[in-house]
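can u do me a favor
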């Protein structure tokens, strides 16, 4: 049996594509290996939305090209967002690459790996249209108890700094029945938590003529018995409706958690980003959400150093972040992508200033996150157990509903009840005993569900050679 090894780069949406490619390859008779040295075929699913991600993708391709030259691998396939930008350059400049597969060609991975993909096809690029469904084979690469579900793909927003619409195509939603069937299948296979992803999850269903598509979908997913938690990422600020907040506030199994990338707070900068609005309106939104969903956790993302951003604009952003007090925040330095509309703007900010502003905003947020975590010390919370801590084997770790996998903090566990059987995927009551800058420490007081039968060995532990988010 030929063995395939895959490296998945970038966001959870790209990870789902990697998992679909692994599913198709396994169904096509390939064995999946997590040892690069054992692979006959190497696949790298790339990311390229900003320069640092692009550099990492190219470095990974070259790393695997070296492996192919010296090792067992006979074929090297490059997939994902970098292909949408540099399809022909990759083939011309890295001869070790045998085939390229764009984000719209995920289901052609078997042809690419087996050498049946007509080279001609590779030169013709058109906007991706592909979107998987519940009957698409898929091998999940996340721990068994937690999985991502992609509910829509592509984006129609005109954000001037963003090239994702060029890489992922027009906005398109999966049918609700398909998403629910997939969640049910994942739950039967041991998944307790699903995280819904898409470029803009709050637009879910608009293209299907479904009003309030996301809240209705969330309520249906909350009925999937085996699932403990459902959460979603990537809200668009002006689509956070009262109906959506109601659904989260009144449906127990929906995590009280909202991820709303705001990108900035200055009216001037948001106008140049073609996103509109301003910090004052965002503050009202944050207050409305907290009124509607007591104890909700909020995450956001900002870009600093956008062309034309003045020291006053940056100060306005910091003042907004101080007032809003998000639980979690990601900060990106502006990346001047040549095919983005903002590339044509003047008043570019120098790299040193971008770095200084990014560090200053992260330092400001670090204090806020630490303060909000300290406020939880002494409380009793419900937690999902994830397993042995990745960075402290003698400890186990878990997450509260306000902590998304891979991007937010976690709870390190120092104690379990005498007779307890720690098992990934179990829900437990935890007493929070300490807080650090980004994480909590606690002791498990009781488990809220029965241990599940020892699961059969997963088909492929982890499924991929490496996940780099
Ligand atoms: S909403 Fe997000 S994915 Fe869509 S264009 Fe704006 S930044 Fe890009």
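np, heres the sequence
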């Amino acid at each position: 049996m030929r063995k395939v090894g895959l490296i998945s780069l970038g966001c959870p949406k790209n990870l789902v594509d990697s998992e679909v490619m692994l599913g198709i390859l396994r169904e096509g008779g390939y064995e999946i290996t997590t040892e690069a040295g054992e692979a006959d075929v190497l696949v790298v699913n790339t990311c390229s939305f900003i320069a640092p991600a692009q550099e990492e993708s190219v470095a990974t391709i070259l790393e695997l090209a070296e492996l192919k030259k010296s090792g067992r691998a006979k074929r090297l396939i490059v997939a994902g967002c970098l292909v949408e930008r540099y399809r022909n350059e990759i083939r011309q400049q890295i001869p070790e690459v045998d085939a390229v597969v764009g984000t719209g060609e995920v289901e052609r991975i078997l042809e690419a790996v087996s050498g049946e993909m007509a080279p001609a096809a590779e030169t013709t690029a058109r906007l991706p249209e592909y979107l998987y469904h519940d009957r698409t084979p898929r091998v999940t690469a996340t721990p068994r108890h937690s999985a991502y579900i992609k509910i829509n793909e592509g984006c129609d927003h005109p954000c001037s700094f963003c090239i994702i619409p060029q890489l992922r195509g027009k906005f398109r939603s999966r049918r609700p029945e398909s998403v629910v069937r997939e969640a049910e299948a994942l739950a039967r296979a041991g998944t307790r938590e699903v995280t819904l992803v898409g470029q803009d999850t709050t637009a879910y269903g608009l293209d299907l003529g479904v009003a309030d598509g996301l809240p209705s979908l969330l309520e249906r997913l909350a009925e999937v018995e085996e699932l403990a938690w459902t959460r979603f990422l990537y809200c668009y600020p002006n689509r956070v409706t009262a109906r959506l907040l109601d659904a989260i506030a009144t449906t127990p199994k929906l995590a009280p958690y909202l991820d709303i990338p705001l990108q900035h707070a200055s009216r001037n900068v948001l106008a140049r980003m073609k996103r509109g609005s301003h910090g004052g309106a965002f503050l009202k939104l944050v207050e409305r959400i907290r009124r509607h969903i007591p104890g909700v956790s909020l995450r956001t993302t900002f870009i600093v150093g956008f062309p034309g951003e003045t020291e006053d604009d940056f100060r306005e952003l910091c003042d907004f972040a101080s007032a809003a007090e998000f639980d979690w925040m990601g900060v990106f330095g502006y990346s001047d992508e040549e095919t983005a509309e903002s590339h044509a703007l003047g008043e570019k900010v120098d790299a040193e200033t971008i770095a200084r502003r990014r560090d200053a905003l992260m330092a400001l947020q670090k204090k806020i996150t630490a303060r909000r975590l300290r406020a939880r010390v002494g409380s009793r919370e419900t937690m999902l157990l994830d397993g042995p801590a990745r960075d402290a084997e003698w400890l186990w770790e878990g997450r509260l509903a306000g902590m998304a996998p891979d991007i937010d903090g976690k709870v390190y566990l120092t104690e379990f009840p005498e007779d307890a059987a720690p098992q990934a995927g179990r829900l437990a009551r935890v007493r929070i005993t300490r807080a650090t800058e980004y994480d909590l420490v606690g002791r498990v007081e009781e488990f809220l569900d029965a241990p599940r039968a020892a699961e059969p060995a997963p088909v492929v532990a982890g499924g991929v050679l490496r996940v780099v988010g």
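Residues 155, 157, 159, 162, 164-165, 199-200, 236 surround iron/sulfur cluster (CB under 6 Å). hope that helps!!
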